[in-house]
Amino acid sequence: MPADTEKRAAAQAAAQLVEDGMRVGLGTGSTVAFLLPALAARGLRGLRCVATSTATEQRARELGLAVESFDRLDRLDIAIDGADQVAPDGWLVKGGGGAHTREKAVAVTADRFVVIVHAEKLVDAIHGPVPLELMRFGLPSTLRRLGGRERVRIREGWPPSPDNGVIADLEGPVGDPAEVAGRLAGTVGVVDHGLFAPELVTEVIVAGPGGVEHRHQ
Ligand SMILES: O=C(CO)[C@H](O)[C@H](O)COP(=O)(O)O
């Protein structure tokens, strides 16, 4: 199956998990772009959605999905999002689209966090680049404490948007994701990082040449 066919298949499977009246977190990216029409096509009643990026919000609204501010909801029934890497131990890398801080905030709010990927996202072990969101204030200091510019590459052509701070990537091997995630979380100036721990994830839906597989964590 070509990647887009697989992305669509994973997205359609996830759309089936949503029921009338649910509060739904909508992720960001090209796989989620297939989720939004699949969800809209279900014609569910009383959905209340929050979006992890302005791009997702705009597209969801165009499709007639009711998107509200995340300021108004403190619990979600389900959140559905893509990923850049999925490791066998359940660790994820997210943030290829620079939305990982919002995506994590939405994921932790949901009773059920469902990840939708095509088979190429499966990796043997988590590796760099790991997306970062950094405060603009004191950026040189944060970069130095993270290991300098050989270790952290600021994404070119990503000016600060209403959605994000400074988006960068931590390069090189990751080793133990839990250790790296802890170190990044403890680094002043790092808003958040794209490592998602297995405990955050309820289910990964993987679409590959053999069909769609639901992996429960
Ligand atoms: O984390 C993300 C955006 O910040 C995306 O979910 C991730 O990059 C996967 O994107 P795609 O579905 O386009 O491969």
UniProtKB/TrEMBL annotation:
<comment type="pathway">
    <text>Carbohydrate degradation.</text>
</comment>
<keyword id="KW-0413">Isomerase</keyword>
<dbReference type="InterPro" id="IPR004788">
    <property type="entry name" value="Ribose5P_isomerase_type_A"/>
</dbReference>
<dbReference type="GO" id="GO:0009052">
    <property type="term" value="P:pentose-phosphate shunt, non-oxidative branch"/>
</dbReference>
<dbReference type="InterPro" id="IPR037171">
    <property type="entry name" value="NagB/RpiA_transferase-like"/>
</dbReference>
<dbReference type="InterPro" id="IPR050262">
    <property type="entry name" value="Ribose-5P_isomerase"/>
</dbReference>
<protein>
    <recommendedName>
        <fullName>Ribose 5-phosphate isomerase A</fullName>
        <ecNumber>5.3.1.6</ecNumber>
    </recommendedName>
</protein>
<dbReference type="Pfam" id="PF06026">
    <property type="entry name" value="Rib_5-P_isom_A"/>
</dbReference>
<dbReference type="GO" id="GO:0004751">
    <property type="term" value="F:ribose-5-phosphate isomerase activity"/>
</dbReference>
